[in-house]
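Exam review. A common question shows you a sequence with its structure tokens and asks you to describe the fold in words. Practice with the pair below. Do the first one on your own.
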Amino acid sequence: MSEKDIIICRCNDVTQKEIEDLIDQGITDIEEIKRLTRIGMGPCQGRTCIPLVMRIIARKTGKKIEEIPVPATRVPTRPVPMGVLAGAMNNEE
């Protein structure tokens, strides 16, 4: 397996090569990378992939990790019962 075949976002099957290709095209804003690849939008909400992508951006651009803004997190647009977020099935409406 090549380094380029390494999966960075397991939720959305985004590879290191895909991230590096975007950076090589001049796309270094993590929000834009997020919109193009859906990193951070899976069930883990970016707990694994966002730090990895930040490291790749830092390595390829020469920036320090602290200089790379963390993407915005968004809460649900309407209230959601905690049981739903925890994965519990609720037949009540």
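Now try the second one, then compare your answer with the model answer below.
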Amino acid sequence: MKNLVILELRSQPLEEQPLEICERKGLGHPDSICDAIMNEVSIELSKEYLRRFGTILHHNLDKGLLAAGESVVRFGGGEVVKPMLIVYGDRATFEAGGETIPVNEIAFNSTMRWLKNNMRFIDPELHVRYQSEIKPGAISLQDIFHRGGRFLGANDTSAAVGYAPMSELETLVLNLERYLNSPSFKKGFPETGEDIKIMGLRRKRSVDLLVSIAFVDRFIESEESYFRSKGEVEESIREFIDSNYDLDSYNVELNVLDARGRGIGGLYLTVLGTSADSGDSGQVGRGNNVNGVIPLNRPTSSEAAAGKNPVSHVGKIYNVLSYRIAEEISRNVAGVREAYVWLLSKIGQSIDQPLVTSVQVILEKGARLEEISGEIEEVVEEEFEHLPEFCMDLAYGKLKII
């Protein structure tokens, strides 16, 4: 493959480093909501373009804002006094071949559908307002979609990096949030909202977990019932960790801002299960990386993948693909302890021809780079050979990136 550079990293694997920090913003965190909504809009818009024209037209919807509303929490149930506001930004194709595409209608409808499917207490028509600032794209970027060829040209000069495998702390933070937002957990603890954040700190083999969960006030009758429920949730978290991880020691702290004796002011209560109902706004690109966590010890891209189009915007394609390649190398090439994959695009250059593809590996003891570099190159070539299918999987939402 052209412009492929394979290097050995003589670095200490993350699992052997004495300190690691990793964060996960959960399903109902305002930043995660923004990412999920804008990506859902891109998926539905891509489907509409494909249905009408047999191809995906220019759009980039990676600029979005969730402005917090206002609510009054009360024991037994409060109320929303000012709805949240979702603002959609950036560019899309509104007209092609004499046909008008209802971009704003698609954006609003897909958002309401996502909220209904994922946020138990948000009424999309009552609790949310919608404001579209989506405009037609620049002529030069639209023209990329009319130049033909098996692959489109990159619509940006951009770099991405992915890695594999995930560390134990990264998988713990990711899987714990998914457990806390699972249907089975919500059935047992309906008072817990979808807005969850987990910060993990590992010192050697000892882990500290700072967990934040927005409780829903309609299920909480008093300060006493709040702390009783909080204790039960903490116990469930410990049972999950004990059943799935073998740590030397760990400590869990839940909603550390809580203060007994201060009434509602000392509790993390919400009306709708998310701090966005009054306390916190959200923005695209401030949430998790495309592998689901915010890994502070790893190199990461500054690009927000959510909402970008899946056929020319390398900020999405390379962001996800770099992780895919790293995972395949880590899984299939013997002797690789950790793999890091860097992809750099050049605007206008075909997306299957990066300006550089750099694979950097930390090897197992005794492994030699010259003996496995051919296998690494085969993995990279195989992934780029299947790039059309990969892009369509992104277009139809088959690859989870939130």
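Model answer, second protein: The longest strand covers residues 192-203. The longest helix spans residues 30-53. Full marks require stating both points clearly.
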